[in-house]
Design a protein that fits this description.
The chain is of the alpha/beta class. Helix content is 32%, strand content 17%. It folds into two domains: 295 residues, FAD/NAD(P)-binding domain (3-Layer(bba) Sandwich), CATH 3.50.50; 221 residues, no CATH class. A hairpin with a 4-residue loop joins strand 5 and strand 6. Helix 1 runs parallel beside helix 14. It is globular, with a radius of gyration of 23 Å. The structure holds 3-acetylpyridine adenine dinucleotide.
C-alpha cells in the first residue's frame, strides 16, 4: 500500500472513526482511516458471538447527526442484535461514501510525533507509512480482548474462541461439550444460546453477576413512528441524563420509600426490563444501603427462577448491583434449569490449568470439544497501548501511563500534541450511551481542528496542569460512586498487573459536555496552542 500524507489519520472504522471521517471531510480536511478489521463497525464487526446485542435501545443507540439517516433507518427490534447494528454501520459508510478513505485489514503499530516536522508518522503492520498533522485514535473502549494466562492455555486440542473475536462464519456447537469461562455481559448473552445447541455446557463462574431481563421484541410500528416523530425531544432529553440515555430516572431516595413501594417499583422496572432498572431510585449507585434493597430484589428473582436451590445460591451476586456493568439478559438464569448445563463455582474450584482435553478446576477434569473465553477486554487503555504511541521527545504513551491513564477531558494527553482520543479514559464513554458520546467527542475535535485552521494554529497540546486537575477531578468524583468499589474492568481489575484506576469519568454526561463546551468557548482553555 502506498505511503500517504493527509491532514488527519483516524485509527479505527467503528462508529467513532466513521463519523470522524465524515465530519473532517465536511470541513474540507483530507483524512485517512486505518482499520485492522476487514470491514467497518468496530466492536460490532468483531463481537459476533451468539446472542450479541446492544443493551441500549436501538432507537437511541444510533447516530443523530443526520436527521435523514435517523428517519430512513428502520430498527427491527427494541435491542438490536449485532448483525443489524453491523448492517447499520455498513449502511452509514455507504450512504456517506466513506469506504474510499478507509484502509481495511491494516493494523497500526506505531504512531510517533515528529517534533521538527510537526507531523505524526503512522506505521502499519503491512508496511504503510502515513504522515498527518493530526492523529485521531478512534480505537474503541472495549476492543483489546483479554484471555487470562491460564497454565497450559495453548495446550487445548479442541477449538477455542474469544467472544470478542468470533469467527465470521459462526460456530455450530451441536453435539459438542462446551466450556464457557466468564459470566460478564458477553457470557450472559451467549450462554442461553450455546446451551440450546451444545450437548453439554459447563459455565465457569468467578463472580456471579446481576442480569435484568431485556424483554426484547420487534418494535411496534406505532412506537417506532412516534419515536421518529419525536426524535429531537428524545435526543434533547437524553442529553440531560447522566448516562446520555432518555429513560425514566426517579430522583427519590430508595430509603425514603417503604418496603412495599420499593417492591412495586422494582417489579415494574423488572417488567419493563433493561438498564432502566437502576433508574428506580436516585441513590442506588451512591448509597450502599439503598443499593442493597435493589440487589436483594434481584437475588429474590434469581431464587425464584432457578429451581435447584444450590445452583441458585451459587448464582447469587453479593456485590453492589451496578458496580460492575449491569447485564441485560434473555433467559440467562433459566438456562441453569437445563439438564445439559453445569455451573462451576471457581471460588470453590479454581481453574488450575487448561489441558489438552479441557479444563482442570478444583482437581476435576472437565473434557470439552470447545472452550469459549468470555473473559472480556483490556478496557479503555488496551487498544491505545497496543499501538506504540510516542509523543514529544519519543516518550512512549505506555511509559507516561505506567501508573494509569492521564488525560485532559479524555480527549488529549500532555506531551502528545495534535493527538486526540475519541471517548478516551477520563471521558464518560462506557458509562453512557456510546453513540451520543462519540458524536460529542467527534464534533468537539472537528471544531477544534477548524478553529486551528482558521487561526493559523499548527499545534495543540493539553497542558500538564489542566491534565493534573482533570485527573484529580475524575478520581474525586469516582470516589462518590459505589461503582469504584468493586473489582471490575472499569478499574482494570480484570487484567493482572493493570494499575487500579477508575478510568471513565462518572460526573455525568451533561456536566461533562458543559465542561467541554466551556473549554472550547474560552479559546481551548487548558490547551497550549501555538502557530
Ligand atoms: O467482559 P467482562 P464482557 N478466571 O469483563 C471472567 C460490554 N458489552 O465481554 O467478574 C476466571 O464483563 C470475569 O470474572 P470476574 C459491556 O460494557 C456490552 O462480558 O472478573 N474468570 C467475568 O465474569 C460489558 O461490561 C454488551 O470475577 C475470569 C468475565 O470473565 C463489557 O463489554 C454485550 C478470569 C469477563 O466479563 C465487557 O463484557 C457484551 C479468570 N482469570 C459486552 N478473567 C451489550 O451491549 C476474567 N474472568 C449488551
Amino acid at each position: 500500500m502506498a505511503d500517504s500524507d493527509v491532514d488527519a489519520v483516524i485509527v479505527g472504522a467503528g462508529f467513532a472513526g466513521l463519523y470522524m471521517l465524515h465530519r473532517l471531510r465536511g470541513l474540507g480536511f483530507s483524512a485517512q482511516v486505518v482499520e485492522a478489521g476487514g470491514g467497518v463497525g468496530g466492536t460490532w464487526y468483531w463481537n459476533r458471538y451468539p446472542g450479541a446485542r446492544c443493551d441500549v435501545e436501538s432507537i437511541q443507540y444510533s447516530y443523530q447527526f443526520s436527521d435523514e439517516l435517523q428517519q430512513e433507518w428502520e430498527w427491527s427490534e427494541r435491542y438490536a442484535a449485532q448483525p443489524e447494528i453491523l448492517r447499520y454501520a455498513e449502511h452509514v459508510a455507504e450512504r456517506f461514501d466513506l469506504h474510499r478513505d478507509i484502509r481495511f485489514d491494516t493494523r497500526v503499530t506505531l504512531a510517533a510525533f515528529d517534533d521538527s516536522a510537526r507531523r505524526w508518522v503512522i506505521d502499519t503492520e503491512v508496511g504503510d507509512r502515513l504522515r498527518a498533522t493530526w492523529c485521531i485514535m478512534a480505537t474503541g473502549c472495549l476492543s483489546a480482548s483479554n484471555i487470562p494466562n491460564f497454565e497450559g492455555r495453548d495446550s487445548f486440542t479442541g477449538a477455542t474462541y474469544h467472544t470478542g473475536h468470533w469467527p465470521h462464519e459462526g460456530v455450530d456447537f451441536s453435539g459438542q461439550r462446551v466450556g464457557v469461562i466468564g459470566t460478564g455481559s458477553s457470557a450472559i448473552q451467549s450462554i442461553p444460546i450455546i446451551a440450546e445447541q451444545a450437548e453439554h455446557l459447563t459455565v465457569f463462574q468467578r463472580t456471579p453477576n446481576y442480569a435484568i431481563p431485556a424483554h426484547n421484541a420487534p418494535w411496534d410500528p406505532e412506537v417506532l413512528r412516534q419515536a421518529k416523530a419525536n426524535y429531537p425531544e428524545m435526543r434533547a432529553r437524553a442529553r440531560r441524563m447522566p448516562n446520555g440515555i432518555a429513560f425514566r430516572l426517579n430522583t427519590q431516595s430508595a430509603l425514603e420509600a417503604t418496603p412495599e413501594e420499593r417492591r412495586r417499583e422494582y417489579e415494574a422496572r423488572w417488567r419493563e426490563g433493561g438498564l432502566t432498572f437502576l433508574g428506580a431510585y436516585g441513590d442506588l449507585i451512591l448509597n450502599a444501603e439503598a443499593n442493597a434493597t435493589a440487589a436483594e430484589f434481584v437475588r429474590g428473582k434469581i431464587r425464584e427462577i432457578v429451581q435447584d436451590p444450590e445452583i441458585a445460591e451459587t448464582l447469587l451476586p453479593s456485590n453492589v448491583i451496578g458496580c460492575k456493568r449491569l447485564c441485560v439478559d434473555t433467559d440467562y438464569y433459566k438456562t441453569f434449569n437445563r439438564r445439559n448445563v453445569t455451573l462451576v463455582d471457581l471460588n470453590k474450584a479454581p481453574i488450575e490449568a487448561i489441558t489438552p482435553d479441557g479444563v482442570r478446576a478444583g482437581g476435576v477434569e472437565h473434557g470439552f470439544d470447545a472452550i469459549v473465553f468470555a473473559t472480556g477486554f483490556d478496557a479503555m487503555t488496551g487498544a491505545l497501548l497496543k499501538i506504540d504511541i510516542r509523543g514529544v521527545g519519543g516518550v512512549p504513551l505506555r511509559e507516561k501511563w505506567d501508573s494509569g491513564p492521564r488525560t485532559y477531558l479524555g480527549l488529549a494527553t500532555a506531551g502528545f500534541p495534535n493527538l486526540f482520543m475519541v471517548t478516551g479514559p477520563g471521558s464518560p464513554s462506557v458509562l453512557t450511551n456510546m453513540l451520543p458520546s462519540i458524536e460529542q467527542h467527534v464534533d468537539w475535535i472537528a471544531d477544534c481542528l477548524a478553529h486551528m485552521r482558521a487561526n493559523g494554529i499548527a499545534r495543540v497540546e493539553a497542558r500538564t496542569d489542566a491534565e493534573d486537575d482533570w485527573v484529580a477531578h475524575v478520581n474525586e468524583v469516582a470516589g462518590f460512586s459505589l461503582r469504584s468499589t468493586c473489582s471490575s474492568w472499569y478499574v482494570g481489575a480484570n487484567v493482572p498487573g493493570k494499575p487500579r484506576v477508575f478510568m471513565p469519568y462518572i460526573g455525568g454526561f451533561p456536566a461533562y459536555v458543559d465542561r467541554c463546551d466551556a473549554v472550547a468557548a474560552n479559546g481551548y482553555e487548558g490547551f497550549a496552542l501555538s502557530a
